[in-house]
Structures are given as C-alpha cells and as structure tokens.
Amino acid sequence: MPTFQLGGGEKTFVTLANGFVRSGYDVDFVVCWKRGVFLEQLSPQVRVVEMKQRVRSVLPSLVRYISREQPDYFLSGSDFPNYLSIIANSLVRKSKTRIIVAQHCFYDIESRHLGLHGRISPWLMKYLYPKAHRVIAVSDAIRSFLINRGISENKIVRIYNPIDRKELLLLSEEQLSMPETLPIFVSIGRLTEVKNLKFLLDAYRKFGEVLDRPDCLNLKDAPSCLKPKLFIIGDGEQKQELEHYIFSQGLKDDVILTGQINPFPYLKAAKLLLITSYSESFSLVVAEAISMGKTVVSTPTGGASELLDHGKYGYLSRDFVDTDAFALLMKQALLNPISGSLLEERSKEFSLEYIMEQYQNLLS
Predict the structure, then answer these.
(1) Please, which pLDDT band fits residue 242 given cuts at 50, 70 and 90?
(2) Cβ contacts of residue 312 below 8 Å, gap of 6+?
C-alpha cells in the first residue's frame, strides 16, 4: 500500500492485517509511507515496514524485502502495487513466496486521469496476473471483469472485503456536536468525478422540493416531512467545485462538506446512506452501512447492485442521470427503511470472521 490514508483499499488491508494477527499469523504491513488515518487502527502486533519511497520507485526495495524476509505469502492490492509485487518476486532468485493480488477496481471514468499508467494497465494485467499464485476478486462483478480481460477462471477467487462490525460500533460511539433529534442523510467517499456528487446535490434539492408540498407543510411532525441535513464526508479534488455548486443551488444551509473525519458516528445517526457513484467494484461503505443496519439508496453500480442483491437489501435507481427518480427513491426509502433483521442476515456474508475463514482456506 502507498500509505494509510483514507480509502476503501487501505481500510480493507488494515482490517485484513488485524484479522490475520488474531488468527495467529505473523504479519508485516509493507507501505511506502507510514502515515494516514488508518495507521492508528492497525494492531500493534502488526510490524509496519516503511519503504520511504514513492510507489513508482519502490521496486528495488520490494525485491530486497522479499529476498531478505522470504514471506510465505505476499498480499497486495490496487493495480500498480500488484504489478510491482509480481515483478519483484520474479526478480528474486528461487523465491518461494506466493504472490496474491487483490483487484479492487474497474477501469472506469477515473482512468482518463491516469495518463500512461491508465493506458498500459490492461496490458500489464493480462501479462502479469497469470504469474500470481491467486487473484482475488472483491466481487462477482470484478470476477467477470477479470475473466473478460483474459485472466483464467481457475486463477480467480472471489472474496468480499471484510467488515469488522465490532470496530465499526466502537468508532460510531463518538459524540456528535448536533441535536440527536436532527435527521440527517450521509454520503461517504472521495470528492471525485466518479462519485457523481452533483447528481447527489441535484437529487437532494429536488427531494427538498417534494417535502415543500402543501400537504407536508401541515404535517411538520410527520417523518415524511422532516428535511434531513446532508453530510458529505470525504475529501478530494472536487471540493472547491462542489462548494461553489452548493452555494449556487441555494443549499449552503442544508449541505455540509465535512472533510476527512470519522464517518461512523454520522452513519450511526443517519436516516439513509446515499451513494451516487458511476462505478463501484464492491463499495465498502455500502457493506459498512448494511453491517450497521442502515438503509442505502444507490445508483446501480456493479458493486452496490451485488451487495444490495438488486434491491432486496436496499434501494437502487435505474440509471445515473434521473435526479427526479432518485429523489423519489430517497422519499420511499425514508418512509420504508429496510428491516434490521434482513440487513443483519446479509452482513454475515462479509463479516470479518467469515472472510478470514475464506482467506485461511486459500492459504491452506
């Protein structure tokens, strides 16, 4: 991993490292820079190996690490670190280390910003992934994506990202500086183009217009007529653009961009989690919301559709452009939340305990 900064991949690897330690494994966490919000969540029993180099320069250090430590297994995630791990192991003479790479993403709208890396990644994947011991697909959608790019089905294992529910509940106990009676909606993720956040803001504005109907004005105490505040939790390159858009749409009193903070107290307090991405391979935050018994309203990405079982465990829009329909879906979800018992049953499929069993089977 490059760092411990906020991100789904980083969070997943910290959870996995903690899970392996609890299961009796000796674990090294190899990282370019020992910094980021998830570092404090890492078990003290995990040894952090800091390379103190950028990802693009780390190959010689990786070769030396594998040669010196000779780990039984080396698990990497994110496409470029995956390529480097495979190459590094191939450069170690008579290496017995087995490389396991985890594919966490598609090549989507964000690939346009990756330059040469974005253009050569499909070729590198097709050439290098067959040299790995196993390729982990974090969803069935990613599994299909890999197969369509020429990776053998026998090489791929589908294992969901793990959710440590006990940790979530602990992190959610932090007190919020707002009235407990204030209803809120929450969106969590990076402020980037792929998250489709102007769509979210437009849908939220139209949701407010629905609640301004004359019949709602006479029913201020009805759940359907309370207008929740919208908290958008995360940071990214679109922050300033979104701040301007919020002001231009007259939403500055209703929408709060929090930056990078602990999202779980807000998720605990939320009426709904709103996800409007163009692309999600797994959507860790959707799995976290399900594990906390929260109703999700999402656009129909591959990951969200899979986790919500095409609408059984949450609400899915039909497309990524109809803000009126999404606003009505928000209203429907607010009035008819998914039952807690149904969400609890679904959450067992990506609980840390169940996922660790799958990893132990993979390593045995």
Answers:
(1) very high
(2) 342
Domains and CATH numbers, the chain: 8-164+351-363 (3.40.50.2000), 167-348 (3.40.50.2000)
Closest CA to 304 of 292, 294, 314: 314
Query: Quick one: which H or E segment has residue 269?
Result: helix 264-269
pLDDT tens sequence across 99-129: 999 998 876 555 555 666 667 788 889 999 9
Q: What are the CB-based long-range contacts (under 8 Å, 24+) for 283-290?
A: 283/8, 283/307, 284/8, 284/11, 284/12, 284/161, 284/163, 285/8, 285/188, 285/189, 286/314, 287/160, 287/161, 287/163, 287/347, 287/350, 288/163, 288/168, 288/264, 290/314, 290/343, 290/346, 290/347
- The pLDDT confidence band at residue 49, using thresholds 50, 70 and 90, is very high
**Cα separations in angstroms, 157 against 151, 154, 325, 350:** 11, 8, 36, 15
Q: What percent of the chain has pLDDT over 90?
A: 74
Residue 296 near residue 271, CB atoms below 8 Å: no
User: What does the buried/exposed string (b/e) look like for 322-341 if buried means 16 or more CB atoms within 10 Å of the residue's CB?
Assistant: ebeebbbbbeebbeebbeee
Share of the chain above pLDDT 70, in %: 92
Chain centre to alpha carbon of residue 130 = 26
CB 109 within 8 A of CB 92: no
Rg of the chain on CA atoms, in Å: 21
The predicted-structure confidence for 186-228, as pLDDT tens digits, reads as follows 999 999 999 999 999 999 999 987 666 555 544 444 554 568 9
Least Cα distance to 277 among 106, 37, 114 occurs for 106
Q: Is 258 helix (H, G, I), strand (E, B) or coil?
A: strand
- Triad 277, 275, 242: Cα angle to 5°: 70
CA 288-292-296 angle, to 5 degrees, is 70
pLDDT in tens, 300-326: 999 999 999 999 999 999 999 999 999
- Judge whether 236 and 359 are in contact, CB under 8 Å: no
